[in-house]
Amino acid sequence: MNEITNVEYEVQKELTDKTTEELQIEVNGLYHQMEMIGNIAMMIAANAGQRLLVIKDRLNHGEFESWCESHLDFSKRKAEMMMSLAKRCEEENSLFSKTQTFADLSISKVFALLAAPEEVAVEVVENNDISEMTVRELKEEIADLKSQNTEIVELKSRIKELEQEKAEPGTSSDELEKRDKEIEELKEKLKKEKEKAKQIKSKNDEEVKKALEEARVELDREVEKAVATAKVQAKAENMKTEEELSKARAEVEKLNAAVASGEVLTAFRINVNNLQTTFNECMNQLSQMDKESAEKFKGALKKILTTELETLSK
Q1: Which residues form a coiled coil (predicted)?
Q2: pLDDT tens digits for 66-110?
Q3: Distance CA 101, CA 114 (A)
Q4: How many beta carbons lie within 10 A of that of residue 78, not counting itself?
Q5: In sequence order, what DSSP letters do the residues of 123-137 get, joined into one string?
Q6: What residue spans of the chain are helical by DSSP H?
């Protein structure tokens, strides 16, 4: 343990020997590494926080905020989170001293836990697989526990106070016994409050699950209703389409009939014209014949025309 302490002291001493400009460059470099590297981001952030603590100690009171704005590539709030992380990592009983707990977490999740009270962060880590949670889900879980754990926080705080009082020199055995008894009572109450909070969380989870299931069922109903409506509309559209097609076919048939009728009429007119032309040519040819031949062909033509007229009169 002494060796570890000595190493930490030497590192801290080395940092204090560096100029502010050197520390600033290292802080920004570590920050960018932290952004790119997920699973070791916590240690990088803590290292950056150590350097920021040294820088802050060198500045006059109230200068740190303006220094952050002028020299850092990130916000003062993030700088404060890094400094807080550096301090918490050095606390022996802190959740954040157990770096293996955060091996697979992004720095955003680490910061979310860091912003929560220690006991809330511990409970979240112990009761959830935070590596599978999104940052938003993690923050919501922390907020829920904070709202539920007011009594738990107060009980833990009182237990801690009593344990500190027990350690004070000059405390009589009667007082120690009295405090031990109170601590035991508070611990029992704390246990019940934790169980109560756990039950509330379980109930809330069940209610959320039930609400989601009801929403899913309702959504399925709406989908089925929409599908049924769409089918009815499609059927109506199909019927309408069939009716329109039937009308269109009738119109086409009428048009075809009209076209056919027009073709016959046109052909008839052409044939009549041809007949008239042929008759005129026959008359012209008769005029060019001798009288005897002309009389013979006239008689034949009259006979043909008489027969055709009789056919036309039927």
Answers
A1: 128-292
A2: 999 999 999 999 999 999 999 988 888 888 887 677 767 778 888
A3: 13
A4: 20
A5: HHHHHS-GGGS-HHH
A6: 2-17, 20-36, 41-58, 64-71, 76-90, 107-114, 118-127, 135-148, 150-166, 173-287, 291-313
Q: Which amino acid is at 44?
A: I
Q: Which two tokens stand for residue 311?
A: 């056919």
What's the CA gap between 155 and 117, in Å, rounded?
Answer: 14
DSSP secondary-structure letter at 100?
A: G
Q: How distant, in Å, are the alpha carbons of 11, 61, 83, 104, 219 from that of 6?
A: 9, 30, 21, 29, 64
| Burial per residue of 2-15, b for 16 or more beta-carbon CB atoms within 10 angstroms, e otherwise | eeeeeeeeeeeeeb
Structure tokens at 275: 């007949």
Distance CA 197, CA 127 (A): 12
Q: How many other C-beta atoms can be found within 10 angstroms of the C-beta atom of residue 68?
A: 20
